[in-house]
Design goal:
Arc Repressor Mutant, subunit A, elongated, 12 strands, 8 helices, about 20% strand, 5-stranded parallel beta sheet, Rossmann fold, alpha/beta, 4-stranded antiparallel beta sheet, 2 domains
Length: about 230
């Protein structure tokens, strides 16, 4: 049975989440403070942790930072804070996803399932990734669309590779900049806007109705392409 730890200082939130998660077959542990949550994370060895940012003793971002010193357990933030800076700080501290309160339980459960899928050890990404008419050959660094070659710059290809090898995961601006441009970067989000726009155009992905690259405003991007074998 999958074990979930809820770290939230609101008793009604803990009760509601416990009831719903248990009804869907999850084992649930709860904690009302950051310190208690860290203790439970050690004792209960959960498979996933929900963390509120507004805890009475520690900021949730600090809880995530401390958690990451001893565990790679997936973390989903639950918070009323909807400012870009709060989301980026939590994700850069090591959170895997961020859900703003109030939230729909079905969406939360879907995010939980998606995060758990990504956290499970998997075989290395297949050398050829296919998404309908789009094919990305990671070994040869070749991209084709409808059977014809897509000419990408080295930076465009690096960005595409970072996205397709982290499907569904929210990749922050800072993470992408350091991954693609190098460790000396992190604040140049305008670079990303330019290159994502160019990449979308070459891949035929409309920003208004994306099928491949989803923008998380002010935070980062997700690869949402559906693999077709």
């Amino acid at each position: 049975m999958t074990r979930v730890l809820i770290v939230d200082d609101e008793p009604q939130i803990r009760r509601a989440l416990r009831t719903s998660l248990q009804a869907h077959g999850y084992a649930v542990e709860t904690a009302g403070t950051g310190a208690e949550g860290l203790e439970r994370a050690v004792d209960a060895a959960p498979d996933l942790v929900f963390v509120d940012l507004g805890l009475p003793d520690l900021d949730g971002t600090e809880v995530i930072t401390r958690l990451r010193t001893f565990s790679e357990v997936p973390v989903i933030v639950l918070s009323v804070r909807d400012q870009q800076a709060d989301k980026v700080a939590a994700l850069d501290a090591g959170a895997d996803d961020y859900v703003t309160k109030p939230f729909a339980m079905e969406e939360l459960l879907a995010r939980l399932r998606a995060t758990l899928r990504r956290s499970h050890p998997e075989e290395p990404a297949p050398p050829v990734q296919r998404y309908g008419d789009l094919e990305v050959d990671l070994r040869k660094r070749l991209v084709t669309l409808g059977g014809g070659p897509v000419h990408l710059t080295p930076t465009e290809y690096g960005l595409l590779e970072a996205l397709v090898t982290n499907p569904g995961k929210l990749l922050t601006h800072q993470w992408l900049l350091r991954k693609v441009w190098g460790q000396g970067y992190g604040q140049e989000s305008h670079y990303l806007r330019v290159y994502v726009r160019a990449l979308r155009k070459k891949l035929g992905d409309a920003a208004a109705a994306p099928a491949l690259i989803l923008t998380e405003p002010g935070v980062g991007y997700r690869w949402i392409g559906t693999a077709t074998g």
